[in-house]
Design a protein that fits this description.
CATH class of the largest domain: Alpha Beta
Strand content: 15-25%
Largest sheet: 8 strands, mixed
Bound molecules: N-(iminomethyl)-L-glutamic acid, fe (iii) ion
Radius of gyration: 21 Å
Helix content: 25-40%
CATH topology of the largest domain: TIM Barrel
CATH architecture of the largest domain: Alpha-Beta Barrel
Number of helices: 15
Number of strands: 16
Length: 419
């Protein structure tokens, strides 16, 4: 079946010459077509343009059914690309949230065996079926907010068996969900209690047991490490990435959330696809990133929820860097996968312009998952993963109305997900 969406008030993020990412001043540019149409065929965008160039007789043929959607007053844009989540988790952690309200920090909670270790204990008890069902419900919710592609990490297993269990669940989600999904092995998310006094031993297990098995089963697209104060050191990260590289695992790194940890530098050294969080980014880190192909990925939901400082996004863009933004959906530091809220935080907390924020959650998010040739913009030949908005006055209304769901319909792989 083909779909034509007509009378679109404004078609946002169109590309005539597809780019893999946008950086610096280019981030403030957003190409749009007013009074537009988009044609979808075989799950792909096959044509778009201004309504006065639309020749409807061309599109309906006898053996190809054509569905017409009238989008009068509505806008169409690429579905969000959420490049950093921990959506497979066994249970929420709102009890720790109360501890945080009372004044404990994320690190203090982690030190007394809460946080990631709390999720790991419950992960051990949970079956693959339970985890899949819980994650599928979360995936459905993020689709309703407009997400079309998502990266999901392991990292609540922290032993070989449970890390593999999480990655198998993500593999299952790839089969069951209409979302485009990338999976990341994050065995180095926290140091298990039994290795507290000898973290190098746990790193040995990651290198000698986990990575070879992950590679043999071919169940991870990327590898991640939480390289930060109180978690994994630069030296640990170096060792793990070196081992991952031998199996062709490209890094995406949790870096500089809690301190100037050296995580950005070690990520870039291994040609990471992205380095993520980056609350602690100074001139030195910006210089290193400018000389790389690594996507700096900011997670404002974690700063918002934990009351951390915000990454210096304005300074980074003004220095010429690209920025992607992702939800970091996880039970401890960002229990929401609503990318519309992330878009708003980009403008409110980082002082990004609406155009910059939209670029950060579409094309640059796609790049941070290795998907910008297929997703992240309206371009002929890309996957038809589209948002049709409710009636809205301008596209700046998307970040502005931070508490409302502005998505009316979502189309994934050329199929309407809701009516
Ligand atoms: O990205 N920073 C490390 N990991 C996650 C938090 C995971 C958790 O607390 O469960 C994050 O914020
Ligand atoms: Fe994270």
């Amino acid at each position: 079946m083909s779909i034509i969406i007509k009378n679109i008030k404004e078609l946002i993020q169109v590309e005539y010459q597809p780019r893999d990412k946008v950086s610096g001043v280019e981030m403030a540019e957003l190409l749009t077509v007013r009074d537009a149409y988009v044609l979808i065929k075989n799950g792909l965008i096959s044509d778009f343009g201004n309504m006065n160039t639309l020749d409807e007789s061309v599109y309906g043929t006898e053996n190809d059914e054509l569905m017409v959607i009238d989008a009068t007053g509505r806008m169409v844009l690429p579905a969000w690309c959420d490049s950093h989540t921990h959506i497979v988790f066994p249970a929420s952690r709102e009890i720790e949230y109360i501890d945080k309200i009372k004044g404990l920090s994320y690190e203090e909670i982690a030190k007394r065996g809460g946080g990631i270790l709390n999720s790991a204990r419950k992960m051990h008890e949970a079956s693959e079926e339970e985890l899949t069902e819980l994650a599928l419900a979360r995936l459905e919710e993020i689709i309703s907010f407009g997400t079309g592609a998502v990266e999901i990490k392991s990292g609540y297993g922290l032993n070989t068996e449970d890390e593999l269990k999480m990655l198998r669940v993500i593999k299952k989600l790839k089969e069951l969900s209409p979302l485009t999904i990338k999976s990341t092995f994050l065995g180095a998310h926290a140091i298990p209690a039994e290795y507290k006094n000898n973290p190098a031993l746990y790193v040995d297990i990651i290198i000698n047991e986990m990575i070879p098995q992950v590679a043999t089963e071919d169940i991870a697209d990327y590898i991640d490490i939480f390289c930060d104060r109180g978690f994994f050191s630069v030296e640990d990260t170096d060792r793990i990435l070196n081992a991952g590289m031998k199996y062709g695992l490209k890094p995406k790194i949790h870096a500089n959330e809690l301190d100037f940890s050296g995580g950005i530098q070690v990520g870039v050294k291994y040609n990471a696809l992205s380095v993520d969080h980056l609350e602690y980014t100074g001139d030195e880190e910006i210089k290193v990133l400018l000389a790389s192909d690594t996507m700096p990925t900011l997670l404002p939901g974690a700063s918002f929820f934990l009351g951390l400082i915000y990454a210096p996004a304005r300074k980074m863009i003004d220095a010429g860097l690209p920025i992607a933004m992702a939800s970091d959906y996880n039970p401890g530091s960002s229990p929401s996968g609503n990318m519309q809220f992330i878009l708003s935080l980009g403008c409110i907390a980082y002082k990004m312009l609406p155009e910059e924020a939209i670029n950060a959650v579409t094309i640059n998010g796609a790049y941070a998952m290795g998907l910008s040739d297929q997703l992240g913009s309206i371009a002929v030949g890309k996957k038809a993963n589209l948002i049709i908005t409710k009636e809205i006055p301008t596209y700046a209304f998307l970040p502005y109305a931070y508490g409302s769901n502005k998505v009316e319909k979502i189309i994934l792989n050329g199929e309407i997900m809701n009516n």
